[in-house]
Design brief:
Blueprint: E1 22-23, H1 44-47, E2 49-55, E3 63-69, E4 72-81, H2 88-99, E5 104-110, H3 115-120, H4 143-154, E6 159-166, E7 180-183, H5 189-203, E8 215-216, H6 227-235, E9 238-245, H7 251-268
Parallel strand pairs: 4-5, 4-6, 6-9, 7-8
Antiparallel strand pairs: 1-2, 2-3, 3-5, 7-9
Helix pairs in contact: 2-7, 5-7
């Protein structure tokens, strides 16, 4: 898909176009301007444009929405972090993803989706578990869930990545889902999830921690009230829940691992970063070779 027009017309309950919206970089034609201290406007031709809006501005839920447009057309990928406020790796990784530039495509990031829960350092916020408010085929159950969904849907994404943390390891600790990537049944998600797991295991997870290797977990078919399930059922595009464990892993390392997975998924869908060597469409997904299926559901 081509790069989309910036989210517009969300109005009440969404991204307020006139309130809390700012351009984080110089406008086209400002040839002598600096861009956040990172160069002149000539650099814009290489890295594109960045803007920040506010979700539910003026409310207790107010939180940034970052949009990064590359100078060349490409896919749109939405990344969400912080649906659960006590999962620091999720929102810290999302912020790191949002900080990068884009050479081709559009990146839309809601780094801290559940601000009240994050501030309280609790899984649930106002209205309960935010990631249980996205029933497929229905309007989301709470004001915040509706606003998050509006950002996702109106971005017209090619893929959606939802970042989380677990206290155990999938297939090792009963009921735990850490070190797992849960793809939707839609698009190329299954193959790309397996490929991302293999990539993170090769580049991030130490050889002496084999139990911490990522796995492609069971697929999400749109049958549960989770954000990724709703993406599959209502949008019909690829979606992912990425779960990284905090079991014997420091927070900074969790972020490094989850960032590697997220970035690989972005590139698999064709989003290009300025430092990428090529603009190949997809990341050479290797099928389901690293996957395991049917061993429990995505618990986040």
């Amino acid at each position: 898909m081509k790069r989309r027009t910036l989210l517009a017309g969300l109005g009440a309950g969404g991204l307020s176009p006139g309130f809390g919206f700012s351009r984080a970089r110089g406008a086209p034609g400002d040839q002598g301007a600096t861009l956040d201290g990172r160069g002149t406007a000539a650099d814009r031709e290489r890295v594109g444009d960045r803007s920040t809006g506010t979700l539910l501005a003026g409310t207790q839920y107010a939180t940034p929405v970052v949009t990064v447009d590359g100078p060349r057309d490409g896919p749109t990928v939405v990344v969400v972090g912080g649906l659960h406020g006590d999962e620091r790796v999720g929102y810290r990784t999302a912020e790191r993803v949002a900080a990068g530039d884009v050479a081709a495509g559009r990146l839309v990031v809601v780094p801290r989706a559940n601000r009240p829960a994050i501030e309280a350092n609790t899984r649930e916020g106002v209205g309960g578990d935010l990631n249980r408010q996205f029933t497929p085929g229905e309007a989301p159950a709470t004001e915040l869930a509706r606003a998050v969904w509006r950002v996702v849907a109106e971005a017209d994404p090619d893929a959606v990545v939802d970042l989380h943390r677990s206290t155990g390891i999938y297939g090792v600790h009963r009921g735990s889902v850490g070190q797992a990537i849960f793809p939707t049944v839609t698009g190329e998600a299954t193959a790309y999830a397996a490929d991302a797991a293999a990539y993170a295991n090769e580049t991030e997870v130490p050889w002496y921690m084999p139990v911490h290797e990522y796995r492609r977990a069971n697929r999400l078919d749109g049958s549960a009230p989770l954000l990724a399930h709703k993406v599959a059922a209502d949008l019909g595009v690829a979606g992912y829940i990425v779960e990284t464990t905090n079991y014997l892993v420091a927070l900074d390392t969790q972020v490094d691992w989850e960032f590697a997975v997220a970035e690989h998924l972005l590139r698999a869908h064709g989003l290009v970063r300025p430092d990428d060597g090529t603009e190949a469409d997809g990341a050479g997904a290797s099928g389901e070779g690293n996957g395991t299926g049917g061993s429990g559901g995505a618990g986040e």
